[in-house]
């Protein structure tokens, strides 16, 4: 069953200007160390950050809260599976919210997909509840 769906569209050039203006202050407020290492290794640093920004926004929408009610940017983190597929991990208040919205006898699975076509970065997040065996 679907528990939540979220999407977001981010402007890569806006993220690039924010990185130039605020640097580490922005990076450290929004992105985990793992996300920062990934982005800083990429040719398109701003595009990588923009996709992760969009994923966090989309995840907060799928959780039904947006970025309010105690959810922190860093409570949602995008990593990659060995196949390259993006994965969303939640901690803190976001994990509490996910647990709260997951029916008993089910486990929550967060699906995320990212794409970009300069100057846009886009993310979709679907939170699925799967019945436990």
TrEMBL record:
<dbReference type="Pfam" id="PF01648">
    <property type="entry name" value="ACPS"/>
</dbReference>
<keyword id="KW-0444">Lipid biosynthesis</keyword>
<dbReference type="GO" id="GO:0000287">
    <property type="term" value="F:magnesium ion binding"/>
</dbReference>
<comment type="function">
    <text>Transfers the 4'-phosphopantetheine moiety from coenzyme A to a Ser of acyl-carrier-protein.</text>
</comment>
<keyword id="KW-0808">Transferase</keyword>
<dbReference type="GO" id="GO:0008897">
    <property type="term" value="F:holo-[acyl-carrier-protein] synthase activity"/>
</dbReference>
<dbReference type="GO" id="GO:0005737">
    <property type="term" value="C:cytoplasm"/>
</dbReference>
<feature type="domain" description="4'-phosphopantetheinyl transferase">
    <location>
        <begin position="4"/>
        <end position="95"/>
    </location>
</feature>
<protein>
    <recommendedName>
        <fullName>Holo-[acyl-carrier-protein] synthase</fullName>
        <ecNumber>2.7.8.7</ecNumber>
    </recommendedName>
</protein>
<feature type="binding site">
    <location>
        <position position="8"/>
    </location>
    <ligand>
        <name>Mg(2+)</name>
    </ligand>
</feature>
<feature type="binding site">
    <location>
        <position position="57"/>
    </location>
    <ligand>
        <name>Mg(2+)</name>
    </ligand>
</feature>
<keyword id="KW-0963">Cytoplasm</keyword>
<keyword id="KW-0443">Lipid metabolism</keyword>
<dbReference type="InterPro" id="IPR004568">
    <property type="entry name" value="Ppantetheine-prot_Trfase_dom"/>
</dbReference>
<keyword id="KW-0276">Fatty acid metabolism</keyword>
<keyword id="KW-0479">Metal-binding</keyword>
<dbReference type="InterPro" id="IPR008278">
    <property type="entry name" value="4-PPantetheinyl_Trfase_dom"/>
</dbReference>
<keyword id="KW-0275">Fatty acid biosynthesis</keyword>
<keyword id="KW-0460">Magnesium</keyword>
<dbReference type="InterPro" id="IPR002582">
    <property type="entry name" value="ACPS"/>
</dbReference>
<dbReference type="InterPro" id="IPR037143">
    <property type="entry name" value="4-PPantetheinyl_Trfase_dom_sf"/>
</dbReference>
<comment type="similarity">
    <text>Belongs to the P-Pant transferase superfamily. AcpS family.</text>
</comment>
<dbReference type="GO" id="GO:0006633">
    <property type="term" value="P:fatty acid biosynthetic process"/>
</dbReference>
